[in-house]
Automatic annotation (TrEMBL):
InterPro entries: Homeodomain-like_sf, HTH_RpiR, RpiR-like, RpiR-like_SIS, SIS_dom, SIS_dom_sf, WH-like_DNA-bd_sf. Residues 25-101 form the HTH rpiR-type domain. The keyword Cell inner membrane does not apply. One of its GO terms (molecular function) is DNA binding. Residues 143-283 form the SIS domain. It comes from the Bacteria. This is Transcriptional regulator, RpiR family. Keywords: DNA-binding, Transcription, Transcription regulation. Pfam families: HTH_6, SIS. It comes from Treponema socranskii subsp. socranskii VPI DR56BR1116 = ATCC 35536.
Length: 301
């Protein structure tokens, strides 16, 4: 998963640009300033962005290119031409311009008179319902079968997605399956290199486009390990490398709410996988669970 998008928005987003910060006022300003130098294809992109503004930041590069009617490569060249290091960098800057202070604080749309607790619970319910409708139950069954029959289960995730990887490790360890994970990227890459075709890996990434996560997935493909991707975007680079894709629903009402909703939906999907695996294991799974419970119980006062 990409690192928490909310935290990225609150950071300075243009310190690595070719131009100095003092000359960069806003994304819209950059586009308008360079408009005369654009080619015909670039002007089509510029016109779309000027018309839709911050709403464009809700789309992945694939989605936005399709909406505009251009290629991903042309879109990347465009954002680099106006001073951004890549699409994700451009997207962060555009999102930051369109996000209100209230949304930056709460990560979800909260009006001044709203009850915060009610708003968060309502948002969570909508997220889970959307994810339930999107859930591919056949893919879930395939993933559970792959995990159940694997020599070992490997859990991968970076940044905020490592929380999901650790949660999955904690749950699946109860089943009696051999599970392995690590928090550090290099350690995860080392784990991936030691896998083989008898193993299964759960790879977590909200956006599915983090370079390091993609490196891990590529290594898993190289070792012929079965890759199960849990992501919000089924057309992401990670999804394209996976044998099985489990998609959770991002909430498109505001970009900053995606990490909020994605994490919640991922946690529930982990529980679904856990129950599916336990159902597959039957008595052996129950025996492992009871053994674990007995061991933990001895440590309680």
């Amino acid at each position: 998963m990409h690192k928490n998008f909310f935290h990225d928005i609150l950071k300075p987003v243009r310190t690595d640009m070719k131009k100095s910060n003092s000359t960069l006022v806003s994304v819209m300003y950059d586009i308008k300033s360079a408009y005369a130098s654009f080619s015909g294809k670039e002007k089509i992109i510029a016109d779309f962005l000027l018309k839709w503004g911050g709403k464009s930041a809700e789309s992945s590069i694939t989605e936005l290119a399709k909406k505009i009617g251009t290629s991903e490569a042309t879109l990347v060249r465009f954002v680099k031409k106006i001073g951004y290091s890549g699409y994700q960098h451009f997207r962060l800057a555009l999102a930051k311009e369109s996000v209100t202070a209230n949304m930056q604080i709460f990560e979800i749309p909260v009006a001044a008179n709203d009850d915060i607790a009610d708003s968060v619970f309502a948002h969570t319910i909508r997220t889970l319902e959307a994810s339930r409708k999107l859930l591919n139950k056949k893919a879930v069954a395939q993933a559970a079968s792959a995990l159940t029959n694997a020599r070992q289960v490997l859990l991968f995730g970076l940044g905020g997605s490592n929380v999901n990887a650790q949660d999955a490790f904690h749950k699946l360890l109860r089943t009696g399956l051999t599970c392995r994970t690590a928090a550090d990227f290099h350690m995860q890459l080392m784990l991936a290199s030691q896998s083989n075709g008898n193993d299964a890996a759960l790879v977590f990434s909200h956006l599915g486009n983090n370079y390091d996560t993609i490196s891990i997935a590529n290594e898993l493909r190289h070792t012929k390990c079965k890759v199960i991707a849990l992501t919000s975007y089924d057309n992401s680079p990670l999804a394209k490398l996976a044998d099985i894709v489990l998609q959770v629903s991002p909430v498109h009402s505001s970009l900053v709410s995606e990490s909020f909703s994605g994490g919640i939906a991922a946690a529930v999907l982990i529980n679904v996988l856990y129950v599916e695996v336990m159902n597959n294991l039957k008595d052996s799974g129950l025996k492992s669970l009871n053994k674990m419970r007995s061991t933990i119980a001895r440590r309680k006062v």
